[in-house]
Amino acid sequence: MCKGEERIVNWKFWEQQKPLKDDRLDSISDGLKQLLAATNGQPFEQLEMQIKENAEMINRLSRLQYKMGQELINKVTPIYDNLGDVTLLCQKGQAATELAIRENSNRMLVSTLIDSIDTIDGVMQNACGDIPDEWRTFLKTIQISELDGLARVGIRELELLGSSFNPIFAEAVEVRAIDQLTGQNKAMRPYEVIEVLRRGFIDGEGKVVRKAQVITLTSSNQL
């Protein structure tokens, strides 16, 4: 290929490349125009200043939001604390109610068991020898079971037979003179409880649930 032909080829190659370069310049130019349009034609120095101002405003808003959040937490926290106190009071109230229900149930149970024991005592005292031995044994078994039930809730029978009369634990419904008693194998003393007509009961704290009714002794000259 001669030099003239080589120049022609190179020129044609330049002619092919030139439109591509023009397209790139046009694209860059369009991008700059869009950027300037987005900034309303502001110089880049003003745009940079506006960006800094916006960033500072965002920081101030963030600090304000944090401060408001902390103030809200400080206001809400006592409310939650009060709610905790209310919940605790409700729990205490519920516990007190449950305790009252249990105590009332225990009182009803104690009253029912004592009434049943009294009924069996009355039957056995009034029937004398008319009750068959197997029935007497059966009734005694029931009483033992009922006394055990009372013991489970802290109630026990007062053991007063043979002890000195104490008005704290018993009522003397009858007083007998010592010299009126015959056929006794042991010496009697004044104020001794010789018979329990109705049982007495005491709780675990020493409080009398019910006084016993007893027969006690006195000397002849005190009648």
UniProtKB/TrEMBL annotation:
Q: Does the keyword Coiled coil apply?
A: no
Q: Note the superkingdom of the native organism.
A: Bacteria
One of the entry's Gene Ontology molecular-function terms is: adenyl-nucleotide exchange factor activity
Q: Which GO terms describe its biological process?
A: protein folding
For the keyword Chaperone, the answer is yes
Signal peptide start-end: none
Entry's InterPro entries?
GrpE (IPR000740), GrpE_head (IPR009012)
Pfam families in alphabetical order: GrpE
Supply the alphabetized keyword list. Chaperone
Recorded protein name is Nucleotide exchange factor GrpE
Q: What is the lineage of its organism?
A: Bacteria, Bacillati, Bacillota, Clostridia, Eubacteriales
